[in-house]
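Materials and Methods. Structural model of Auxin efflux carrier component. The 300-residue sequence of Auxin efflux carrier component from Gossypium barbadense was retrieved and submitted for structure prediction as follows.
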Amino acid sequence: MDIFRLFIISLMPVLKVLLVIIAGLILATQRFDLLGCDARRHLNNMVFYVFYPALIGCSLADTMTLEGLADLWFLPVNVLITCVIGSILGWILVIVTKPPRHLWGLVISCTSAANLGNMLLIILPALCEEKNNPFGGVASTCSANGKAYASLSLAIQIIYIWSVLYFLLRMYANNEVKETNSNNSIIVAANGCTRDVLHDPVGLPQIHNDGNQKVSTTVKFKQLFMKIMRSESLRKIFAPATIAAIVGFLIGIATPIRKTFIGDNAPLRVIYSATELIGNAGIPSITLIVGANLLKGTFQ
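The predicted structure was written out as tokens:
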């Protein structure tokens, strides 16, 4: 009987998500055409730049404290261990199956980060609404803690994807490299386009001088710093969700700021309430997009 009860409790959140996914699938069909390609793209941008940052920031600001932060040390460690094991399994997979070399990075990346994503942010709050859920406690408390856990996991995931997996994808995608001895340059072929890149074994920006002037270490460091700050990978690491997570941490940990925005007597609680209201649109929106993306040609 306990097994059947546990099955029902675990089934309800998944069923709710599936119903919303089916709704997104129906809305994307030609009959309704409310979630076509353009609509999905615009809605996805709203989720990425507005809904998810608001949801993540409010979730962490409401539940994260200095004491609670120490209890979550296992989360980044868990993500790291998961990704390391996934990367090893992905490497074994490409060695055994031997796909085209330019797909190695994609296979390893998908294997490494397969279980990282938005699904926790969807499933955990829905699971907390069920009676006798495995996490116990009041549904509102369970939902708040679940959102904070999932939000922190999502922020760590973004950093990992754009710092490690993005590098792997680019490295294997640009595998057609031809070295030439003339002019100490290399020709890089990627996606059918070729360009000449000045050879620089350490990746430092090239500094030209007439041979009489010595470039100081300060200038070299400044140019290297500017190159790093302008890099595409760094900009992607600091995605809106990551920035929202940092802001949520600061508000939750700093007690004076927390009392200003959160609480019945907070003078600026209306800002937090409005941001939370915007963030609540993130979960149904991304679930509808998932359903719309399932649509294939025969259903249109």
